[in-house]
Specification:
5-stranded parallel beta sheet, 6-stranded antiparallel beta sheet, alpha+beta
Amino acid sequence: MFWINKLTVTGNGRTSSTITFAKGMNIIYGPSNTGKTYIVSCIDYVFGSKSLPFAVNTGYDTIAVQINSEYGAITLTRKLNENSVEVSSANSNIESGMYKLAGKQTLGAVLLKLIGIKDVPSVISSKEFKTQKLSWRNILHMSLISEERIIRKPSILMPEQKTAETSTITALTYLATGQDFKESMPQESLAIIKAKKEAVEIYIRDELRQISERQSELKNEVSETSSTDLESEIDKITQELLQIQNRISDSLKGNQKLAECTIMEKRYQALKSQYLSDLNRLNFIVDSAVNSSSEHTRSCPFCSSTVIIKDSTDYITSAQSEYKKIQLQLKDLERTITSLNSEILSLEKSLQDAMKNYRDTNKLIEQELQPYAEQLKEKLWDYRSAMKINAEIDALSHQSSRMTEKVSEIANNDESTLTFKAKEHIPSDMLEWLNKYWPEVLTQCKFDDLQSAYFDKRYMDVVVNGQMKADFGKGYRAYLNTLNALGMILYLKTQGKYSPSLLIVDSPILSLKEKLQSDEKVSSSMRSGLFEELKQHQKDLQIIVVENEIPSIGYDDVKVIEFTKSKEYGRYGFLADLFN
């Protein structure tokens, strides 16, 4: 922890003006135009503000702030209109020398060392993941609150410049956790990611254009059949082709049957010839046997004597039997041949008719059916091709729909996943702590008609009784802004990694400085409650309060400095040689 021990303002020919502070709570109060606000502005200027704390014509031109810490004291000295600060150090962690407000060796790095940050980290400063070095000015605005800012409607935790909000939140998060945001950085720059996205969009749109052109071509090809039920037409053509084939087959059946009968008749005639040949053979045998004697002689081949041989009649009987059998078969065959010849005559007559039909049919086949069949086949091919084309058109339509959805998704993607959202990285325990802090602190401060209070991360501010702080009057805003700054510093002090442990507030209760409407003024019990609350934390923080009037409470252990605006008694004001 560090604390401001002394503030000194000097000028050539001017009386040195010094204010000495206690380590705990300090109150500077008195009438307007006594230089109370100069005290806050001088500290801010030495801490790096660009705004002069007072006019150059006052004759005062040098401001020195002495800071104590457990590692030793340092003194910061800055002249008006200079952008460097002289550091005189007895602190082992800080070297003496001249430090610029911006650049490599900066005053901010010195002040950050006072709260334990030895190596200045980088913090994300924009939604596009740009980074900057952590600055003392990133956090000072919540520890040092001027009279102009005390009544502001936006959160007192946020900077004046909207563009600095991201760096302020990441700075707060770093103070709370000690962790930077390296893991949140994208592997590629946002510009490269956007370029890739645009390239993908161009590619998809080109594909969609080609798909559209192909669909138009295909639709032109099937325009004549666009209103035709292709499946039913294909079935109809197939049935017609089958009927033509059946007609051609039927015209050939008569020829086939006649050919079969002719072949059969020839076979039967051959069989008849065989039967007649067999009958002639048997006739000859029987006739020969009948006409020859029944006995005859022959010489014996061994003794040469005469041998009488008698003929047998058995083979004649056998031949006669076979002859009769063949005669019967021949008669059956002749009847069959007669029947077959009759059928052949009938078939020949039918064939003559059939041949005429056949010639007519062939003519029909050659001149009508085959050409028509070819036409049907071509039509069938066209219809089947049309079905394939329609299937391709449907597939292209589905592909086009998917690609359209994809390009729409890409086009509407605002890179939210690639945009750094600082508030999403605020530690959850910080929010839990602040949500517990607010109802407790407002109860202790005796906030009028308190029903509920919570911390809204969206605005980094308090909501009381369902009403945003920005909707309250000036007196209430000053009051709540003071408690908001106090709450954040207490959280960092008790729960965080690093804490400034310093709260400087100008006019937290707007006692006489503002002409307020009745509904803008805080009650006396609320004013007393706020100062009692500040007193409770003077062992943990250095608190410097500047006010016109202060509540009538006990100020034991509080360093109270009064400006009387009188040359007769007390201290007139801050700058010794300036009088109103």
